[in-house]
Amino acid sequence: MDLFVAQVLAGIATGAIYACVALAVVMIYQAIHHLNFGQGEMAMFSTYIAWQLMQWFGAESGGTLLSLPLYILAFVLTVAISIAGGFLVERTVFAPIRNAPVLSHVAVFVALFLIFNSLAGEIWQHTIKPFPTPFGNGPLTEGGLVSRHDAGMVAVTLVVLLALALFFQFTRAGLAMRASAANPVSARLVGIRVGMMTALGWGMASGVGAIAGMLIAHKVFLEPNMMLSILLYGFAGAVLGGLTSPGGAVLGGFLVGIVENLAGTYIPVVGAELKLPIALALIVVVLVVKPTGLFGQRLVQRV
């Protein structure tokens, strides 16, 4: 029983990261109705920026910081840089090709993946680097089943998700973004700048991805390919919950984390090596059985 509880709790911790990535995927999907294959690499690049800032601020070689305020400063600066970067990518790269064919968008997404991956390897090399955690490495409680870092990941994720929910529900910018995603034509008619709302959505999705990258880097270590499997799990969570439902994508991310851990523990043929195919199989099954996801809305067009 203790093993089951431990695996569920560990799945919730990793599922929190998948939930962040799934939410970022859905935010961009709702803005442009395409999946951003470069989302994980943008998050990875942001994590490298955070690591570089921490080195400049005085990080030790073992992956620990000299003080918590420096970590928080690097964290906040990285999120701000990521939001600005995502905004600029949309304005300079995707706005000009908004009406281009789908394959043009796919080609640009693949190009983003390769560009950010190659730049990270060129600037920071391909050696694995430790990434610090402000939460500590020990158990949360005496003999506890949850580590401090895992508990911190879940706490930060919940705070981010709550802040986003409040933003979309109670702010003018959030309501404008929702209106732009739901009905761009009507939004333009009431004076909403749909293009700017789309760019803001890109920026916020990049910021959420950066948070996910910085939280998970301590567990998987920092290297240019660190987010590849994380992105696939995020895609699985988004598809499971529904690409039209941000809340569903978040829940889907948590479910994927739990299912992944339980499958790797209790199904002998899965083990640690076949966890990723489990996520891919989950995507296929959901698309076949319920293409809109568990909480997605079926789109009906009148002709």
UniProtKB/TrEMBL annotation:
Keywords: Amino-acid transport, Cell membrane, Membrane, Transmembrane, Transmembrane helix, Transport. GO terms for molecular function: transmembrane transporter activity. GO terms for cellular component: plasma membrane. It is a multi-pass membrane protein. It is found in: Cell membrane. CDD domains: TM_PBP1_LivH_like. One of its GO terms (biological process) is amino acid transport. InterPro entries: ABC_transp_permease, BCAA_transport_permease. Its main location: membrane. The chain crosses the membrane at residues 6-29, 70-89, 101-120, 151-170, 190-218, 230-259, 266-289. Belongs to the binding-protein-dependent transport system permease family. LivHM subfamily. This is Branched-chain amino acid ABC transporter permease.
